């Protein structure tokens, strides 16, 4: 059975990002996948110290920093898809989530060590919820980064909500968040496990 | 046979965006799909006049503006995937490409008319090439917009290059651009035609 | 007397972007500056053809394309500040406005011809108004581009509004838009005319 | 004498972001201002816990979290301008810097407590340096956020560099970084201390 993890990056464990994630994971499970929820603020995550800038081969999984980021990355590795649900802090993800993303360089940079990003082919969905502007901006930032780490984004895989009214009183964002779970699971079930990036591709073209 | 169209949004018909697109389409065709290239600057595309803000049901395909945008949208509709290769004008797509994207609201807004975006399930890849900074910014902007119109982005579906040296002297961007074609075609071949967004999803959850 | 021009980049000449701009220009005039309003959709603006990529010295003001962009650029040159009020099309400025910005390379690129951007020291404010998400994203994109062309942005010089209710029923965005006019005018009155960028600066440092 | 602080947000205390910042602060000091440099990675900064979402009046300076963020905010408060020099982690500021920015909500949100953001009227410059794409994206994100907190950005106040070669071997980025210091200091010297945002502005307009 395929597996999808949900990451709630809000300090509020029962806040709006968390609730929308629950709905999203519920919708995913209806497509026949296992799900697991992670509350990011329960994990200690130190800032990335950018070993990769010193020597590209220094950065590898597991990361040398001995906090709890590797635990989360273990869970990401076991899963086929990932849904990130985030509050919007200044039109972008909170620093705590950004720290996790920075640290995930250890997964992506395995390209330099083993020739393959450990995130390649994972399917990613993003939900961003704020009470002012910037929700699109935060969601698209996360999704774009993950594509350049090797992940895929399904149709309607980005949902965002930026209004003063609580998200769970708005039918439209509830539908969008649930559909993020649906489409991530649908795509996880459709995609075969292949080596997506072909490092020798130019030989077959020229 | 599945089909992928490539859109060169550079005024230079044989410039770098165009060459990278050629390589990308070549790589796509090696995966067993038909390809077609469109030079956007050969088409007259007027600015969107935002009918949708007046009345959400006014905006539908074909667009009421009688220029050549509908011709391109016809080609998009016939295809299963799309690769957009663009120069970088001020860290973002040129206004001419943005005009096309704005006009593609006529495809996306069929949600309001027929319950379904005409772009749903199409696979999109983006290549951005500049001689200064901003290539990531341009590429991610295009990809994110298209996801929120209903398209999917495959692993490594975004490539960007921002250096003063010509792109075709840089092996890494040639590989990245070729792989954009490969992964768009791979994903086009893997994805089934389904209705991705379920408007009644909440009924199955609550 | 200093002068500020306002650019309404909405096709709706009496729509929300236009109304907020009127209020903003009114607030500016209360600071003792002249104002003028331009409706961008009344001007024909062709796409930039990127001469600068062929030869950096080819792009200069007035632009070689014989449409009405030079007229607007004439007005920008006569002014000390500029307020751009825009609707949000897919989280970013409409292609028509982006075409103007692309064409304004002819003003910025005078660095290569005469050693000085013709936009240097102008003060810029931005108002973005949409009925969905993306208003911050559109506003910040415009402001950031203009800073890298040589313009300054005053405190609170960016205002954005992204809600389904009409902007003119929302006191907060009316205040923000008015303050954009106020701060642009305040800063125009405070800034001296100097050469901001010193091309020989390294000589005084090392 | 006016004062400008420089924040190096790289874990490398003598890396490229740090060196460019030194040059920038040197150029600032030549304009007759005091300068002070802060190495952000020497400070412990916990993630923001978003009190403001629970009750808008809970978030105020000094922040309730008892780490070293308040020390940095003290230094920001004493200064008239700020130059942030940052490495680029995934096209955006490192999580550690984002955590500081999130925590600076305590300064901005004094609007709700005392009617005035404590960052209002401060002048901000940004330098972003990476060895791949995304430097513009990181720099503009930081600058835009700070404008919406009440800061101003001078002409040429954003500099970015994204190439594999070391920044200090590139004359153009050295000039740009030095000019960031120059223009921030120039603007600090020109701007008067005023209340920029007028909360009663509509009374004078309607």
Describe this structure in words.
The structure is a homotetramer of 206-residue chains. Chain A has 206 residues and is α/β, with parallel strands linked by helices. In chain A, helix 7 links the parallel strand 4 and strand 5. Chain A has a five-stranded parallel beta sheet, sandwiched between helices. Chain A has a single domain, classed as 3-Layer(aba) Sandwich (Rossmann fold). Chain A is built from nine helices and five strands; from the N terminus they run βαβααβαααβαβαα. Chain A is globular. In chain A, helix 1 packs across helix 8. At the A-B interface, helix 1, helix 7, helix 8 and helix 9 of A face helix 1, helix 7, helix 8 and helix 9 of B.
Report helical residue fraction of chain A.
Answer: 40-55%
Q: How many runs of DSSP E, i.e. beta strands of chain A?
A: 5
Shape field of chain A: globular
CATH superfamily of chain A: Flavodoxin domain
Mean pLDDT of chain A: 96
| Oligomerization | homotetramer
**Count, helices of chain A:** 9
The CATH architecture of chain A can be given as 3-Layer(aba) Sandwich
Find the CATH topology of chain A: Rossmann fold
Helix/strand-derived category of chain A reads alpha/beta
Order of helices and strands of chain A: EHEHHEHHHEHEHH
Q: How many domains of chain A, as an integer?
A: 1
Percentage of residues in strands of chain A: 15-25%
CATH class of chain A: Alpha Beta
In order across it, which strands form the biggest sheet of chain A? 2-1-3-4-5
Q: Describe the main β-sheet of chain A briefly.
A: 5 strands, parallel
Q: Name the chain pair with the biggest interface and residue counts per chain.
A: A-B, 44 and 44 residues
